[in-house]
Amino acid sequence: MPSVVGSVQLSDIQEAKEYMKGKLQPTPLVQLWEHKNIFLKMENLHPIGSFKLRGALNAIRKIPIEKLELGICTASAGNFAQGLAWNAKNMDLTCNVLVPSHAPLTKVSAVEKLGGIITKVQFDKWWEAIETHSYEGMQGTFVHPVCEPDVVAGNGTIGLEIVDCIPDISNIIVPYGGGGLICGIAIAAKAHNPNIKVYACEVETACPLKASLQAGEPVEFPYQASFVDGMGGKSVLPEMWPLVKSLVTDSIVVSLQEVADAIKLLSERNHIRAEGAGAATVAAAMKGVVGEGKTACIISGGNIDTDKYIQCLQGRVPS
């Protein structure tokens, strides 16, 4: 089983950034309304509405051509699948995707429109594929959405863009799903300034990192599916734990109501459509538990089902 521990360097992230020039536009950093020290990194503005395009683009370019004959495959709740399918379509490759049964229709439909071939399974089966990096019978070279060094390096370009734009940034809050996003960002940011604090953000129904940090080792968490589908799992992936533990300051846990309120705030005040995972970082920042100074919140994506979005705008937690 491949590991990212110790393998991703600043030079890998810089190389990914150089490769992406002319292929992906850097996303803007904007100020949160009435909060002069909170900034929003707008990853929801990518063509697929998510940061996942970065890691997918960087990973697929590194796969030897002979390994692409049967196409590519992955296990994803939706956003990474979109990133992979978007690139596969441009390269005329087959893209097979394993998704959990609770994956939102918005994301699944988007993958299919990009030519991705969907297989739906129960969450436990899907999580097993995440842990084993494979799914029996699925054709193509497996590209892991988290534990691929090239995915982590691609994600890290976000960190470079943040410090380029705000050199004196003090805190960065990142939604935590598997650790590939936060590790890439932290490697880049801490190379600029080792004193930058990088916080994970988790939702109360899926916070294995917080539980693991408190226990001092990876532990399982009783995961519950919710409208915040873009982050959280049953446990911290073992191959990610050493890197996460060394880079992450802490995990801030937010409630489902706080996430729904943050979605409403972003829509009404900044005219931003964010999905649960993206808005969760703003909910975390609003708790006031991070250190002083400027804080960047990663708005990781904007792919939320319209009915759930409406419920949030009405002040309700989507069912």
From TrEMBL:
<dbReference type="GO" id="GO:0006567">
    <property type="term" value="P:L-threonine catabolic process"/>
</dbReference>
<protein>
    <recommendedName>
        <fullName>L-serine deaminase</fullName>
    </recommendedName>
</protein>
<dbReference type="InterPro" id="IPR036052">
    <property type="entry name" value="TrpB-like_PALP_sf"/>
</dbReference>
<keyword id="KW-0456">Lyase</keyword>
<dbReference type="GO" id="GO:0003941">
    <property type="term" value="F:L-serine ammonia-lyase activity"/>
</dbReference>
<dbReference type="GO" id="GO:0006565">
    <property type="term" value="P:L-serine catabolic process"/>
</dbReference>
<keyword id="KW-0663">Pyridoxal phosphate</keyword>
<feature type="domain" description="Tryptophan synthase beta chain-like PALP">
    <location>
        <begin position="25"/>
        <end position="301"/>
    </location>
</feature>
<dbReference type="GO" id="GO:0004794">
    <property type="term" value="F:threonine deaminase activity"/>
</dbReference>
<dbReference type="Pfam" id="PF00291">
    <property type="entry name" value="PALP"/>
</dbReference>
<dbReference type="InterPro" id="IPR001926">
    <property type="entry name" value="TrpB-like_PALP"/>
</dbReference>
<dbReference type="GO" id="GO:0009097">
    <property type="term" value="P:isoleucine biosynthetic process"/>
</dbReference>
<dbReference type="InterPro" id="IPR050147">
    <property type="entry name" value="Ser/Thr_Dehydratase"/>
</dbReference>
